[in-house]
Amino acid sequence: MIKFENVGLRYGMGPEVLRDLTFEIAPSSFQFLTGPSGAGKTSLIRLLFMSLKPTRGLISVFGRDTARVGRSDLPSLRRRIGVVFQDFRLLDHLTTYENVALPLRVLGKSEAGYRADVVDLLQWVGLGERMHVLPPVLSGGEKQRAAIARALITKPEILLADEPTGNVDPPLARRLLRLFIELNRLGTSVLIATHDLALMDQVDARRIVLADGRIEIYE
Ligand SMILES: Nc1ncnc2c1ncn2[C@@H]1O[C@H](COP(=O)(O)OP(=O)(O)OP(=O)(O)O)[C@@H](O)[C@H]1O
User: Which UniProt keywords are present, listed alphabetically (predicted)?
Assistant: First the structure.
C-alpha cells in the first residue's frame, strides 16, 4: 500500500538525512520504526504522510505516485492515513470528545450520525470518563490516547504513531501496545516509531531500523 524506491531527503542545503530508502508497507501489516534520536524517524513519518516531499526517489501511497498528487487530491489521500504526532496537537479549547469528533465535523458529517462512534472509540481507548474535559487537564497518557482516538475516528487504512509511548509509564505503554495490536488484528496497518526496546521486545513484529540515514529491515 506504501512503497519507497531509492528515496532521499535533505533539508535545505544540509546533508541527506535519509538515503536510499527502499521498502514497502503492506496492507494489514504491523511494524516498528526505530533508530537513535535524530536518525530520521519523524522525517520518515512526514514523508509517509506526504507533509514532506523527498528530494529524490519515488514514493507511492495507495498506488499513487506522490510527486503527481495535486493539492486538491491530497486531503482525500491523507484521510486514509491516521497520524499520532509526538506533541499530540490537540486543540485546548475543545473537549476530548470534540477533538476526536473534529475530523468528522470537518468532513461535514452530522453529530447525530457520528456521536455513538466517537463515544465508542473514546471508551475503547479508556477515555469514556474523560470525554467532556479540556486537554489541559488531561494527563500525558490521556492526551496520548485522545490523539490516538482522533487519528482513528476516520477509520484510516494505516496508522502512523510517532513515539506513542514516549510520555507514559510502562503499564500504560503495554496497554497502548495492546490497543495497536488489536487495531491491526481488525485490519489496519500500523507503524510505530519508537526507541523503546522493551516495548518492541513484547511483540514479534517487523522492525525498520534507521541508522546514518539508511534502513535495515528485520522481518
Ligand atoms: N525542519 C528541519 N530542518 C532542518 N533539519 C531538520 C528538520 N527536521 C529534522 N531535521 C534534521 O533531520 C535529522 C532527522 O531528524 P528527525 O526528527 O527526523 O529524527 P528522529 O529520529 O525523529 O529523532 P527523535 O527520535 O529525536 O525524535 C536530524 O539531524 C534533524 O536535525
Answer: ATP-binding, Cell cycle, Cell division, Cell membrane, Membrane, Nucleotide-binding, Transport
Instruction: Round the CA-based radius of gyration of the chain to a whole number and report it.
Output: 17
Q: Is the CB of 11 under 6 A from ligand 1?
A: yes
Question: Hey, what amino acid is at 185?
Answer: R
Please tell me the distance between residue 38's alpha carbon and the centre of ligand 1 in angstroms. 5
Mutate to test the pocket of ligand 1, among 37, 41, 44 (most ligand atoms within 8 A of CB): 41
Atom of ligand 1 nearest to the CA of 39: 21
End-to-end CA distance of the chain: 17
User: Which pTM does this prediction carry?
Assistant: 0.91
Q: What is the pLDDT along the chain (219 residues), one digit of tens a residue?
A: 999 999 999 999 999 999 999 999 999 999 999 999 889 999 999 999 999 999 999 999 999 999 999 888 898 899 999 999 888 899 999 999 999 999 999 989 999 999 999 999 999 888 999 999 999 999 988 999 999 999 999 989 999 999 888 777 888 888 889 889 999 999 999 999 998 888 899 999 999 999 989 999 998
Which protein residue's CA is at the shortest distance from atom 4 of ligand 1?
11
Nearest in space to 1 (alpha carbons), one of 60, 87, 79, 67:
60
